[in-house]
Amino acid sequence: MTDETTRTTADGGTAPGEIPAMVRESALVAPTYPRSGRLPVATPAEYVELYARSIDDVGAYWAGVAGEFEWMGGWPSSENLVGSLADGFSFFPGSRGNVSVNCVDRHARTTPDKVAVHWIGEDGTRRSWTYAEFADETARLAQAMRDLGVGTGDVVAVYLPNLLETFAVVHACLRIGAIYNIVFSGFSPSALADRIIDTGAKVVVTADETFRRGRAIALKATLDRVLDGLPSVEHVVVVRRSANPAVPMSAPRDVYYDELMAATATRAAPVALEANDPGFIIYTSGTSAKPKGLVHSGIGFMIGAYHNVRYALDLGPEDVYWCTADCGWLTFPIFELIGATAHGATMIATEGALDFPSPDRLYSILQEYGVTKVFTAPTVLRMLARQGAELARPFDLSALRLIALVGEPLDATTWWWVREHVGDGSVEINNTYGQSETGSAWTSSAVGVTWAKPGSCGPALPGHDYAIVDVDGAPVGAGETGYLTLTQPFPTLFRGVWRDPERYRAQYFTRFGPSRYDSADAAIEDGDGHVWVIGRVDDVINVAAHRLSTMEMESALLTVPGVAEAAVIGVADPVKGQVPEAFVTLAAGAAGRVSEADLSERLVESIGAIARPRRVHVLSTMPRTRSGKIVRRLLRELVVDGTARGDVSGLEDPEVLAQLESELGEDR
């Protein structure tokens, strides 16, 4: 790559004109997953044809998917799609149905004894529900909520970890038309209060405690710290996870979940809800501004999540499936709570950390339950690579056929390591991309049909129309970086910002106007139609007027033997404007074999002298969320300010910040 060959970039600057090495050097890999016949296409060429037809008439395409569900009236609709992106859109207006009927009841009728969920506590506790048990619990809980005064359109805050009861609470809300808001169980009291105040939740469902890395996390006590300032809350329902008798309960406001259920014999009938009625609210992180409550429709989300799971996972009756995410992140509703239940899957849900009480916990669960398919985060796979192949060797993982993931770009080095060491050497790896706003991972392999490219996010799924454009909105060419935009609605796309319609338009429909949703992500489409999301627009570093992708730099660092994780940020420089600063963690046994000079030179060799970092810090760990994302913002704060200033409530382990502050302090 030379500095002489440049082109105009999305922000009007210049960047090296060659296709980035990570894109240029990634080759197509044929699927190893055997085609099941459950997808409507059999070859890549048929997939391309289906995608083109789906974009020609997205309303008709999604009507075909929606026709696979049970409806309670108004189906088929006289119109498939009305409205527009910025001003509001509706799929199948006037059609009425119910999510819990389609995700729970219909499977309880056809396969009542099939296990719906195996739940595994961090302390080794095991519980399971069949679909018949799941349906009974959901319908009785829905009636209990009605008896507490919850009606259609009321908000229920779900402040729970991954529990069996979490499945019932969500589907009970969907059964009676209540709007649920799952609040991540690791949030601080103030973050919890902000969300309950904004939604005006009438009921909060929580647990007495949960367990994380061997510690009891006091959820009810956290809620109690802010309850006096939450006038909308009329009742608190408490699941006995630890059964700690010291947990404070204030009658009649507070009631234990099991006692509420024991007093409820009636099963609530499902409410017929319009296809675009709101189903839930999910908040984006609010580190620099008020958190945004993204509103998703109930039935629309179900249709799109079902479709997403079909293409990305191809779940069948033979599968035992595990989504490792926390229910507080949208990955879990898409790929387990709603998307997988819509398929009648047998699922696994786990409490606690994947590497506690022992580093091999993930492998142990895969073996014990004969897991065939996993949905996880790239950071989890990098954690496995960091631990080394020896950890996996004692376990029989031959049942595992597919690993799908979302959250961050997956580098090619980790992709190939997982293929070689996790499973039988032929596990299919499906790296996908989506946002909380999109409600689905809309770029993905069609497993068993389309080919993979290690490092890419795959092609767009049918029914999802997009464009990668420059600052003026003109499409960029193959291999060129631009702004990733969405150009037509689809059912899982969010419908607005809770109680703030102006913020919806201002944030997402200003830069490119009302006809394009602005993702604020930078992306490349290669010559094979694969999308490469290279980071947030703000994460593409401008070094002396050259735009450099943090993802490309991180991928280069991960090719150095012994490097387990990598993160790159941009820091201010008086001459160049910005320069890269890099952070790595090392695999077991690699300490002393990898130097800062080696890492710096790898960036220069892979990208060019313009990518030479100011420093490369070798750390003992990274700050990450429970969903596995490395929080690069905190690394920037630790380097620039010497301390973490922003919100840390979503961290997997907030205690690592003091350790990192000390390590980075020694580097200064």
How would you characterize this protein structure?
By secondary structure, the chain is an alpha/beta fold. It has a domain at 538-667: GMP Synthetase, Chain A, domain 3 (2-Layer Sandwich). Mean pLDDT is 91; it is low at 1-17.
- Could you list the spans in which at least 5 consecutive residues all have pLDDT below 50? 1-17
The rounded Rg comes to 24 Å
Q: Structural class of the helices, strands and pairings?
A: alpha/beta
Arithmetic mean pLDDT: 91
What name goes with the CATH superfamily of the domain at 538-667? Answer: ANL, C-terminal domain
The main sheet orders its strands as 7-6-19-18-20-21-22
Strand tally is: 32
The global form is globular
Which secondary structure elements does this structure contain, and how are they paired or packed?
Layout: E1 6-8, E2 14-16, H1 21-24, H2 44-56, H3 58-66, E3 81-84, E4 88-91, E5 96-97, H4 99-110, E6 115-120, E7 126-130, H5 131-147, E8 155-159, H6 164-176, E9 179-182, H7 189-199, E10 203-207, E11 210-212, E12 215-217, H8 219-224, E13 235-239, E14 254-256, H9 257-262, E15 273-274, E16 278-283, E17 293-297, H10 298-313, E18 320-323, H11 331-342, E19 346-350, H12 361-369, E20 373-376, H13 378-387, H14 389-392, E21 402-405, H15 412-421, E22 428-431, E23 466-469, E24 482-486, E25 496-497, H16 501-508, E26 517-525, E27 531-536, E28 540-543, E29 546-549, H17 550-557, E30 563-573, E31 577-586, H18 596-606, E32 616-619, H19 632-640, H20 656-667
Parallel strand pairs: 6-19, 8-9, 8-10, 10-13, 13-14, 18-19, 18-20, 20-21, 21-22, 31-32
Antiparallel strand pairs: 1-2, 3-4, 5-15, 6-7, 11-12, 16-17, 17-25, 23-24, 24-26, 26-27, 28-29, 30-31
Helix pairs in contact: 2-3, 4-5, 4-6, 4-11, 5-6, 10-11, 13-15
